[in-house]
Structure formats: structure tokens, C-alpha cells
Amino acid sequence: MTQIGSGSVGVARVEVEVTVGAPRERVWRALVEEAGQWWPRDFYVGREPKGFVLEARPGGRVYEDWGNEAGALWYTVLVVEPPAVLELAGHLTPAFGGPATTTVRLTLKDEGDKTVVKVEDAVFGRVDEHTVPRLREGWRTLMGGGGLKAWVEGQTSTPA
């Protein structure tokens, strides 16, 4: 974790790891194909979102779909290496604490019959003393008990 600057131009970097009780292929599928199912309602920026979409291909979009061609672009996909690596780049506008640019690398690694999801997020631009704690908490929620992990493990534990 590094932070340089105090409300002006700087860099904030955070790493978060979450262990999910499912095989890597299952976690990958949930990450890239089922994001709209596990994305927490509190994380949407639109008032009445129709869904959350991750287009897992280079140049693909990660966005909120509000219907009628409206929505919010979160990231553009830079790298896809199924079922192990997803790299994204995005922009934070002043409405969301920017101006800043963010790059995110998500890696999935086997750990026995579980999967470790590692998130590395770096923000360059307007950062302050709250940036790193907000990023860390946000990613822990998204990948952990409020998002991906809860969804995958809930689906895994459901009898067929």
C-alpha cells in the first residue's frame, strides 16, 4: 500500500486478497459471466440500474446498464487470460473523487480446492488520505462477503 500526495496529484495503491471456497474455473465464470448477479446494490451509481455487465475480451466494457442506451462505464478491459488474469483501466470523474485514472489487475490462483482472488488497484490523479482505505474496503466488499465470494459460495452450497 502506497500513497503519495494529499488531495493533489498522487498515487494510491492497494492490494486485497480474498479466498473463495470454490475451484478457480467456477470463480472465473462468476467473475466474468455473472457479475450482474453478485454486484452489490450499494455499489451501483445509477438510481435504477438494469444490470452490471463485464465483457471479458480485450477492449470490452465493464459497465452499469441503465436501459435505453444509458449507463455508466466503470472500466475498459485490457487483458484477459482465462481463468487467471483480468486487467482493467478506468477513469474517475470529479463526481467520484477524481480526476484520476485507475488500473486494476485481478488474478485467480488455486489454493487446494479453493481460489485466492488477488486485486491490485492503482489510482493516479487526485488522491487524499481517504483513497487507500476506501479502495481497500470497496474491494473487500466486492470480492468478499458482500459480493463475489458470497455469491459463489452460496451457489456452491446449494443442493442440485
3D architecture notes:
This protein has 160 residues and is α+β, with helices and mostly antiparallel strands. It has 4 helices and 8 strands; from the N terminus they run E-E-H-H-E-E-E-E-E-E-H-H. It has helices at 24-33, 35-38, 131-143, 148-156; strands at 2-4, 9-20, 51-54, 61-67, 70-81, 85-92, 100-111, 114-126. The protein has an 8-stranded antiparallel sheet. Strand 3 (51-54) and strand 4 (61-67) form a beta hairpin. The longest helix is centred in the C-terminal third of the chain and has 13 residues, at 131-143. It is globular. The termini are far apart.
Number of discrete helical segments: 4
Structural class: alpha+beta
Largest sheet: 8 strands, antiparallel
Which strand order does the major sheet show?
1-2-8-7-6-5-4-3
- Our Rg estimate from Cα atoms comes to 16 Å
- Outline, from the CA principal axes? globular
The portion of residues forming beta strands comes to 35-45%
Mean pLDDT: 92
Q: Distance N terminus to C terminus?
A: 42 Å
* Percent of residues in helices: 10-25%
Tell me the number of strands. Answer: 8
Unreliable spans are none
Helix-strand pattern: EEHHEEEEEEHH
Short key terms for the protein model shown above:
160 residues; alpha+beta; 8-stranded antiparallel β-sheet; 4 helices
Short description:
The protein is 22% helix and 44% strand.
